[in-house]
């Protein structure tokens, strides 16, 4: 019996000369074969092709050639399908969550990714050793590596991703532009030529005009990408983009394009199988970015009309069909304020932000990947995929938003997340006590929420962000709360320059109220009493002063002075304990506050409830290493308590170093000066690599280099003195 599907197909060859985009057809399946009959809408000629149906190879064991949250994400879907999983790890990840979750694990090598996760030979060796039939590359690392995909095919290992030819065609941006243009996908024209001489690139830049986008042809994730706003910036931005591209992709060929101002970054999730079926799962808006990298994503795109949505999806399917795509892919577009869109690139892998597409379509895209890789057809056709509700994803990073989003590293001393549910997902690869390493991306987790409409989904996102409490390193959680509360973001008026345009609004000076100071002070006092009680025991004598008067101490007054420092300001607080268990607090010269407070603990979360002059407020609280961390519905704030005199003498006081310091933990990539060299204010001194991104360290003043303290390849801690020099004023 024949089964007919009214869908479009990509033929190996055509009986007419017209473009593939002008074809539609049907498929008939019988006895392991299927027939493609396609009609050209231009000349009405009929093309047919009989193909052997792909062999279905049920997967029983896969290896995940990645780490962190994406490795954990793949393991969860695989386990649900009854598929065994093999993890790989570097020395830095030997105790990582993905290693613990997998059925087995294989060491790849040292912490540096070039010696571990990027070692194709060791990954394949691990697959052979463990009997894995297929390799899931995740994203990053080897996921878009043509050579690795080809090597897997040659060695008989299933690569859970598109064919190598599609990765090659879409991985080289200049090639992909030509393919997309031929397939009828809108493109922005620029220079994609082979002549990469500085003279030719400058000539082409002048023709295109400024501002100008400089992009690595093999780039992605914002790496190897720079914007030159004026001709004077072109040389330095080009050189920086080349260095970063060489480090990230082993290739420094560049393309040039006109930079579209106030653009939106809109992308479409597509999926193809080995039977020439293609579908799209609607669009995602990823416009709000820092350092050309996404920070918050949503689906569907706000304000996009049904007509544009359909056009976007159909254009993305044409793009996938043009390269014979198989598996999960994302077609990225630049969209102008009039909703005209232009092809930017295709990511030939599962994207970081894929969960928002899953939430609005009710699908598991990792499961789809595994089924398609095994040779099964897509579970749904386009008519069965429906858009339902709205979803947001916020990326939780270890970074310093107020310091140009510099990436960070360090221990997760305290980590509490929102409770996962059917409409709240926490995609992570770390737990409390783990360390965010300098060797890898600083993303801690992805917080994903869904609701029936955008407004309610956004409210849910803000609420969940307030429940994401981290101590031990700087994060972007408070920034995400400010961003998701901004009136323009609430309106959906988003674009790639959103952060720079609304910078002052997104980085307000936090107001430290007497209420917050009182919470911090009483949290300390109540915690001290709790500790003292646990150490000394409590009296059962109802007439004892210790029973009715918790601050009572023999031969001591019931008044205590404390100093709390926050945001560089020290608050002098006098606390008096009243007989009924309440407190009188005087913060500086402010009016006295009559307050009562209690600490409570539930699910490893400690909270303080403060009743101050009849007003009740509640916050989560963490007391650690002499600091009081308060987490409120409006964000977090940290108070430092005053150290006793004997502890101060043991501290390492602040030492002013004469020279440039490392703004974050990282690795020295390039040294641009030598001992004894004269330098000018702002002159580049060194290049650091941190979290796969390049940072240029410049001279803080004019002077002479006395000594370069590190060599290429050295790891350096945050605030390490990189060079020592004498300023020009002291010569």
TrEMBL record:
Gene3D superfamilies recorded: 2.40.50.100, 3.30.700.40, ATP-grasp fold, B domain
Annotated GO MF terms: ATP binding; metal ion binding; methylcrotonoyl-CoA carboxylase activity
Record-annotated Lipoyl-binding domain positions: 654-726
Alphabetical UniProt keywords: ATP-binding, Biotin, Ligase, Mitochondrion, Nucleotide-binding, Transit peptide
Annotated compartments: Mitochondrion matrix
GO cellular component: mitochondrial matrix
InterPro entries: ATP-grasp (IPR011761), BC-like_N (IPR005481), Biotin_BS (IPR001882), Biotin_carboxylase_complex (IPR050856), Biotin_carboxylation_dom (IPR011764), Biotin_COase_C (IPR005482), Biotin_lipoyl (IPR000089), CPAse_ATP-bd (IPR005479)
Predominant localisation class: mitochondrion
Protein name: Methylcrotonoyl-CoA carboxylase subunit alpha, mitochondrial
Residues that span the membrane, as ranges: none
Residue ranges of every copy of the ATP-grasp domain listed in the record: 177-374
Lineage: superkingdom: Eukaryota
Residues of the Biotin carboxylation domain: 58-504
Required cofactor names: biotin
Function: This is one of the 2 subunits of the biotin-dependent propionyl-CoA carboxylase (PCC), a mitochondrial enzyme involved in the catabolism of odd chain fatty acids, branched-chain amino acids isoleucine, threonine, methionine, and valine and other metabolites. Propionyl-CoA carboxylase catalyzes the carboxylation of propionyl-CoA/propanoyl-CoA to D-methylmalonyl-CoA/(S)-methylmalonyl-CoA.
């Amino acid at each position: 019996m024949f089964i007919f599907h009214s869908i479009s197909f990509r033929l190996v060859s055509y009986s007419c000369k017209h473009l593939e985009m002008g074809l539609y057809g049907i498929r008939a399946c019988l006895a392991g074969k299927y027939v493609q009959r396609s009609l050209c809408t231009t000349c009405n000629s009929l093309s047919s092709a009989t193909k052997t149906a792909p062999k279905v190879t049920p997967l029983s064991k896969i290896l995940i050639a990645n780490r962190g949250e994406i490795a954990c994400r793949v393991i969860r879907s695989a386990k649900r399908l009854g598929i065994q999983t093999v993890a790989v790890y570097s020395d830095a990840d030997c105790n990582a969550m993905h290693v613990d979750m997998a059925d087995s694990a294989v060491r790849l090598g040292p912490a540096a990714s070039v010696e571990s996760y990027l070692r194709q030979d060791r990954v394949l060796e691990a697959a052979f050793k463990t009997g894995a039939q297929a390799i899931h590359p995740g994203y990053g690392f080897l996921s878009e590596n043509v050579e690795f995909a080809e090597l897997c095919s040659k060695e008989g290992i299933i690569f859970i991703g598109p064919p190598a030819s599609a990765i090659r065609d879409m991985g080289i941006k200049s090639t992909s532009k030509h393919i997309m243009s031929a397939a009828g996908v809108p493109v922005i024209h620029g220079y994609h030529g082979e002549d990469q001489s500085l003279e030719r690139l400058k000539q082409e830049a002048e023709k295109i005009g400024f501002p100008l986008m400089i992009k690595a042809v093999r780039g992605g994730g914002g790496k190897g990408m720079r914007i030159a706003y004026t001709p004077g910036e072109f040389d330095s931005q080009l050189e920086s983009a080349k260095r970063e591209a060489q480090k990230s992709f082993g290739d420094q060929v560049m393309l040039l394009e006109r930079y579209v101002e106030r653009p939106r970054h809109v992308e479409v999730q597509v999926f193809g199988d080995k039977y020439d079926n293609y579908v799209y799962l609607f669009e995602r808006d990823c416009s709000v970015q820092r350092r050309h990298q996404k920070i918050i994503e949503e689906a569907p795109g706000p304000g996009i009309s049904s007509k544009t949505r359909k056009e976007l999806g159909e254009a993305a399917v044409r793009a996938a069909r043009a390269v014979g795509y198989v598996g999960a892919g994302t077609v990225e577009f630049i969209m102008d304020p009039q909703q005209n869109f232009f092809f930017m690139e295709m990511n030939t892998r599962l994207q970081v932000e894929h969960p928002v597409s899953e939430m609005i379509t009710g699908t598991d895209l990792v499961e789809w990947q595994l089924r398609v890789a095994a040779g099964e057809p897509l579970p749904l056709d386009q008519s069965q995929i429906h858009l339902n509700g709205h979803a947001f994803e916020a990326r939780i990073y270890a970074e310093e938003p107020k310091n140009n989003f510099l990436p960070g590293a360090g221990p997760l001393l305290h980590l509490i997340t929102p409770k996962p549910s059917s409409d709240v997902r926490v995609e992570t690869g770390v737990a409390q006590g783990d360390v965010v390493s300098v060797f890898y991306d600083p993303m801690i987790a992805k917080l994903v929420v869904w609701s029936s409409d955008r407004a309610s989904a956004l409210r849910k996102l803000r609420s969940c962000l307030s429940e994401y409490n981290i101590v031990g390193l700087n994060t972007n959680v408070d920034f995400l709360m400010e961003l998701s509360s901004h009136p323009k973001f609430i309106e959906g008026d988003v674009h790639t320059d959103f952060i720079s345009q609304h910078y002052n609004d997104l980085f307000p000076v936090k107001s430290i109220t007497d209420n917050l100071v009182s919470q911090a002070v009483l949290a300390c006092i109540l915690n001290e009493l709790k500790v003292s009680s646990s150490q000394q025991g409590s009296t059962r004598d109802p007439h004892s002063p210790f029973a009715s008067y918790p601050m009572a101490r023999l031969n001591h007054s019931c008044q205590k002075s404390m100093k709390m420092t926050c945001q560089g300001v020290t608050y002098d607080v006098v606390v008096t304990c009243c007989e009924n268990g309440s407190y009188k607090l005087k913060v500086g010269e402010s009016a006295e506050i009559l307050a009562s407070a209690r600490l409570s603990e539930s699910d490893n979360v400690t909270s303080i409830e403060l009743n101050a002059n009849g007003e009740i407020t509640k916050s989560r609280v963490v007391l650690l290493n002499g600091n009081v961390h308060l987490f409120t519905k409006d964000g977090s704030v940290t108070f430092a308590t005053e150290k006793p005199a004997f502890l101060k003498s043991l501290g390492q006081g602040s030492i002013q170093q004469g020279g440039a310091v490392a703004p974050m933990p990282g690795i020295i990539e390039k040294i641009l000066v030598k001992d004894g060299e004269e330098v000018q204010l702002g002159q580049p001194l060194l290049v650091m690599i941190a979290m796969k991104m390049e940072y240029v360290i410049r001279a803080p003043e004019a002077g002479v280099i006395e000594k370069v303290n590190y060599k290429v390849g050295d790891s350096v801690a945050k605030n390490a003195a990189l060079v020592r020099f004498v300023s020009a004023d002291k010569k």
